[in-house]
Design goal:
Aspartate Aminotransferase, domain 1; 15% strand; hydrolase; 7-stranded mixed sheet; 13 helices; 4-stranded antiparallel sheet; EC 3.7.1.3; 17 strands; 2 domains; alpha/beta; Aspartate Aminotransferase, domain 2
Length: 428
């Protein structure tokens, strides 16, 4: 498609967009009495309007039933999480038995490493990407330290080549081969939070297995944002937060994937708890742990129903739409935003360097932009004029055109505000 940097063209794209109506499903902050242009769904998604109904239902059942809500609520609490299995499986490409919801992301990664990071004198190294999200870095450091290894020996970072912003697939594969028989685990972010690069999870997983290692993925920026096929890719485990692209609310519950090939492996250690115990015998209060078959057997504590209610509201919306429709708009609107940035670049004396990969298959709903010649003042200008975006030092803004609630008209209007900010003009 040949894009145009005009309001009329953007409005025509919106008129042809089957997902455009979903903008009305969300609550937008207001700046200057106008709905904001929201580019930070890669940090915290907007609140769906339907969320309140789901939360109110739990509150009403709690008020009217108290403890009996576990069995007699409209959606009984003792199996509330099971409602996620099928729709969440569709989002991440998993069997219903391979997914569960519990805890928060880094907690779950630590718990999954109990099962999948089992270092030996020979195999003890972890491969991750350079500039992984800090929480992952802290997790790796504390895990290897717990097992008696030094982080500088056990953690192997795959680095970007000099002068490049993204990690090459061939360098990932070469590093896996190099570490070889010392490799215990490959654990990488499916989408790099800083650049928006999408890794070739299928190929990397196969390479890790060939080297004799387990392979897991931190899907914080990938779940709900990338077409995943975790079962078919033979991924060992994965976890993700739900509050970014899946709009479940701040700090909300995490999702987990454990491949079915591990479900019957009695030699695989895990930390056990009451909620992971045999569902049919849970209330018999038995002393010996008998795990639920499937990913639910990795649960530990009673699930937080008030946290899961907003997540379920969002998951139901995803199930209505389907990932194929989301991916189609994601690629289209991200490409239009890229076009707008290049057009504004031509019309100003600034230089924008998009450090996110160019190929749609290598990126998702994010463009990370180096603002050469511009500083924090431009970001502040955008924020004051109703563009909610993300600033990363030294001079990068991250723009996430989430397909569920951003419009093509938003992209055009952003370009005009950006141009005015660079030219130091006042937006009317």
């Amino acid at each position: 498609m040949i894009f145009k940097n005009t309001l009329e063209f953007a409005q025509q794209l919106d008129a042809n967009d089957v997902l455009h109506k979903y903008q009305e499903e969300f609550i937008f902050p207001q700046v200057n009495n106008k709905k904001v242009i929201y580019f930070t769904g890669n940090s915290l998604g907007l609140q769906p309007k339907r969320t309140k109904k789901y939360v109110d239902e739990v509150m009403d059942d709690w008020a009217n039933l108290a403890v009996e809500g576990h069995f007699y609520a409209k959606k009984p609490w003792w199996d509330y999480h099971e409602r996620f299995a099928e729709p969440l499986g569709k989002i991440v490409g998993a069997l219903p038995s391979e997914v569960t919801v519990m805890n928060t992301l880094t907690v779950n990664l630590h718990l999954l490493m109990v099962s999948f990071y089992r270092p030996t004198k020979k195999r003890y190294k972890i491969i991750c990407e350079e500039k992984a999200f800090p929480s992952d870095q802290y997790m790796f450091q504390s895990q290897v330290d717990f097992h008696g290894y030094k982080p500088e020996d056990a953690i192997v970072e795959i680095k970007r080549r000099e002068g490049e912003h993204n990690i090459r697939l061939e360098d990932v594969l070469a590093k896996i081969d190099e570490v070889g028989e010392e490799l215990a685990l490959v654990l990488i972010g499916g989408v790099n939070y800083y650049t928006g690069q999408v890794f070739d999870m299928k190929t990397i997983t196969a390479a890790g297995h060939k080297a004799g290692a387990y392979v897991g993925w931190d899907l914080a920026h990938a779940a709900g944002n990338v077409k995943l096929q975790l079962h078919d890719w033979n991924v060992d485990f994965a976890s993700w937060c739900s509050y970014k692209y899946m709009n479940s609310g701040p700090g909300n519950a995490s999702g987990c994937f454990i491949h079915e090939k591990h479900h019957n492996d009695a030699t695989l250690p895990r930390f056990a708890g009451w909620w992971g115990h045999n569902k049919e015998r849970r209330f018999k209060m038995e002393q010996t742990f008998d795990p639920v078959h499937g990913a639910d057997g990795w649960q530990i504590s009673n699930i937080p129903i008030l946290s899961l209610a907003p997540y379920l509201a969002s998951i139901d919306m995803f199930d209505e739409i389907g990932m194929d429709a989301l991916m189609h708009k994601r690629d289209s609107i991200t490409s239009y935003l890229e076009f707008i940035l290049h057009e504004i670049d031509k019309e100003t004396d600034s230089t924008f360097e998009i450090i996110t990969p160019v190929k749609p298959s290598d990126r998702a709903s994010q463009l990370s932009v180096l603002l050469h010649g511009e500083g924090r003042s431009l970001f502040d200008y955008l924020m004051k004029n109703g563009v909610i975006t993300d600033w990363r030092e030294p001079n990068v803004i991250r723009l996430a055109p989430v397909p569920l609630y951003t419009s093509y008209e938003d992209m055009y209007n952003f370009g005009q505000i950006l141009k005015a900010g660079i030219l130091n003009k006042t937006v009317v």
